[in-house]
Amino acid sequence: MSPRVFSGMQPTADSLHLGNYLGALVQWVALQDDYDAVYSVVDLHALNAHPEPEALTRRTRATAAQFLAAGVDPARSILFVQSHVPAHTELAWILGGFTGFGEASRMTQFKDKASKRGESGTNVGLFTYPILMAADILLYDAAAVPVGEDQRQHLELTRDLAQRFNGQYGDTFVVPEPHIVKATAKINDLQDPSSKMSKSGGPNGIIEILDDPKVIAKRIRSAVTDAETEVRFDERMKPGLSNLLTIFSALTGRPITDIEDDFAGKGYGDFKGALADVVVDYLTPIREATLGWIESPSTLDEVLADGAERAEAIAGATLERVREKLGVLRLAR
């Protein structure tokens, strides 16, 4: 039996961006070959930002549709919406009893977001976010979790909670390991190449999967570069151009040195025009497939319902083990 992997993504926007795709979805699709994969649209996490109800519904479907369009295969993986499996919230409550207040307070992401939001804008849900994330992972006996640096501390908390519970009540949880893919391309903002591509940046700094091709081409042509004209990778002196070369290489599978050779003696205009064509050609099939799923919501909902049923079978068994270890009284039927 293959080891299991779990990962999730919040439905915080109508479209994922190129950084999401290259940083996460490409990994997810590849992991299906060697792992029993479980992927989730983690909508409960998104509630901390108080989204409009209609927007949350739309974005949850759109995020799942983009997973499918990118190559997540429900015949080989489980794809579900977090809130469709109630075990997530119950286990999060239980794990909260094993988490120290100081331990949760030291989470870097919480401190960063709390400092930006201020006391009035910082809710308890933001504070307990890592505990719900731990529940997400531990429910599925995940042996591996693909994580970036921003989530590594949360995974360490997950491991600590699993070991703490196991130490007190006996083997109950699988202790997950981080799954790091060395070749993952780090994509930065087109207007601020010192920062990673993110929704928190300006709209002109990101390439969205569902953008109109003309918008994509315009954003690439207006991407920040430098005063030189030589197409050369140099992250320190030419961070903007180096970011564009990284995108070119990631989408074509070609070494950056080969791309540099192709544009020797040519200017940035030629390079950006060629890159725009590469990005549009690559994303267009994903965009069209996504829109196909969105335009057939009943079909998409059937896939998610099937995924929830399969996820519930695994999560329910895990939660039953936890209840038994804790001595929670069974419901007599």
The average pLDDT is 92
- Trace the largest sheet across and list its strands: 1-2-3
Helical coverage, percent range: 55-70%
The profile of the biggest β sheet is: 3 strands, parallel
Cα distance spanning the termini: 34 Å
Structural class: mainly alpha
Low-confidence stretches: none
What is the H/E order? EHEHHEHHHHEHEHHHHH
Number of strands: 5
Shape: globular
- By DSSP (H or I, 4+ residues per run), the number of helices equals 13
Cα Rg: 21 Å
Estimate the strand proportion: 5-15%
Please describe what this structure looks like.
The protein has helices at residues 18-31, 43-46, 53-70, 87-96, 101-105, 108-121, 124-138, 149-169, 213-221, 239-252, 256-262, 268-294, 297-326; strands at residues 4-9, 36-41, 77-81, 144-146, 177-179. Strands 1-2-3 form a three-stranded parallel β-sheet. Helix 3 packs across helix 12 and helix 4 (87-96) packs parallel to helix 13. The protein is globular and about 75 Å long. 56% of the residues lie in helices and 7% in strands. The chain is mainly alpha-helical and 333 residues long. The model has no long low-confidence stretch (mean pLDDT 92).
Give me the secondary-structure topology.
Blueprint: E1 4-9, H1 18-31, E2 36-41, H2 43-46, H3 53-70, E3 77-81, H4 87-96, H5 101-105, H6 108-121, H7 124-138, E4 144-146, H8 149-169, E5 177-179, H9 213-221, H10 239-252, H11 256-262, H12 268-294, H13 297-326
Helix pairs in contact: 3-12, 4-7, 4-13, 7-8, 9-12, 10-12
